[in-house]
Hints:
Helix content of chain B: over 70%
Mean pLDDT of chain A: 88
CATH superfamily of the largest domain in chain A: P-loop containing nucleotide triphosphate hydrolases
Structural class of chain A: alpha/beta
Largest sheet of chain B: none
Structural class of chain B: mainly alpha
CATH topology of the largest domain in chain A: Rossmann fold
Oligomer: heterodimer
Mean pLDDT of chain B: 93
Number of strands of chain B: 0
Strand content of chain B: under 5%
CATH architecture of the largest domain in chain A: 3-Layer(aba) Sandwich
Order of helices and strands of chain B: HHHHHHHHHHH
Amino acid sequence: xxxxxxxxxxxxxxxxxxGLSLNVEPGVVYGFLGPNGAGKTTTMRILSGLARPxxxxxxxxxxxxxxxxSDIRSLIGVLPEEPAFYPWMTAREYLRDFIAPLYGITGxxxxxxxxxxLEKAGLTEAxxxxxxxxxxxxxxxxxxxxxxxxxxxxxxxxxxxSALDPAGRKEVLDLIExxxxxxxxxxxxxxxxxxxxxxxxxxxxxxxxxxxxxxxxTLMARYASPLFEVEADNGLDNWPDRVKxxxxxxxxxxxxHTARILVKNIKEAQKALLxxxxxxxxxxxxxxxxxxxxxxxxxxxxxxxx
Amino acid sequence: xxxxxxxxxxREQWRTWKAVILLSIFLISGLISPVLAKYTxxxxxxxxxxxEALMAAIPEPTISDAIAQYIKNTxxxxxxxxxxxxxxxxxxxxxxxxxxxxxxxxxxxxxxVLAKWITGVSVILVGLAIxxxxxxxxxxxxxxxxxxxxxxxxxxxxxxxxxVYLSITLLASAVARSQSMAAVGxxxxxxxxxxxxxxxxxxxxxxxxxxxxxATLVLGGHTTAWAALGxxxxxxxxxxxxxxxxxxxxxx
Lengths: 306, 252
């Protein structure tokens, strides 16, 4: 559905994209992750037709967008990182009288569709207010409404929830989840918990290159090196140094009265650690197996790349 | 699609008061010009202690003074306002991010430029129609009736003259990434054209010749400025084409 081959893009001496290739299958929600300046927005801008790559090719809906003359904009929906609107228009006018007709949606259909989108975005009450008075969160929801008005087959969402409060974030993520299967979504974000929640496939980009792409579950399983979190009544007096000597333990880190013990084998470690605490007479208050979050995996990969 | 862009531009002109400002200024200028032509000599004569010789030298106002005032006032205010109200039309969209929103939709960027140009020309034409009607009415009241056909021709030539500045400002707005840079480009174009207008021989081929040709037509003269009209048309077409080309290739 979306295929990028060897995207290269430089701004002066800065290489925003340095041979980026990726593949997004139809109907999936693809989480596009990367630190600031990794090249996510540049990729989005190229895919949405706002910029051109210095090198490389890309296909969206089997059409090569990097070829001159191709235009797939009527089939995609785009939400830029900071959506901007005409301050003198109302939300309803913007959707009904401007955006919808640009996609060929007019008359009663435009009226109905814009009302639906305003409702989905939670903006019905603000529909007749001028966009100049919209908060950042409202603008982002409005941005999502305009991106969805024509039922696009492909959605490019650049940081769609970054400006939203927790309730707004939940609503938007629910909306994205509801589109799974029917719409292919490329979602760039730095909020890893959101990726963990809604994305089927995760691509991690750093310094303009894709360093990893896999199904979320596969990724979590592949990078899962189980951790134990331990809290004890007598705090962390000396025992973390001694537990480190166990053959099954790889590393121990201590923070906020909690010891995080990285182990080689979860089953063996479980027995060995419990035996250790009994032998040492440590009154364990909490003994919990922690699987690494996507955030842990992301940080580990980025650190490794750096 | 083009109709939607055009409707948006007209609505924007109205909602942001741009059209109202321009139309009001054209109307005021049209109304005030014959009045100024008629009563300036009267005001000058009423100044106490004015020497007899000077009083005798003040000419009786004529219809040509009314036309001259109309051309002078409308040109000066018109050009300034057209530049001020047009310089941001594309640059500001790029600066604010609304261009990035719009260009991800199935629209040709050159259609956006053309919609803005057509709106600008329409406002100029309506402004000149309103201002011209005011001038026509007051001139008839204070002097005598103006020949309608040639007065319309004068206003059409003025419209071409204004469209030259509109097109150059639109080009500056398409090239610039900010409104302030567009202002520099537009006022730069104005200065260049004003300098060229004042140059002997070259001035015969510049757009500045058009209002004078119009005045000659109204007053029954026979001087023409077809070359200036041709050059103006070339400037307009070139500026709009360049603005379209620039926006089509620009990364937003």
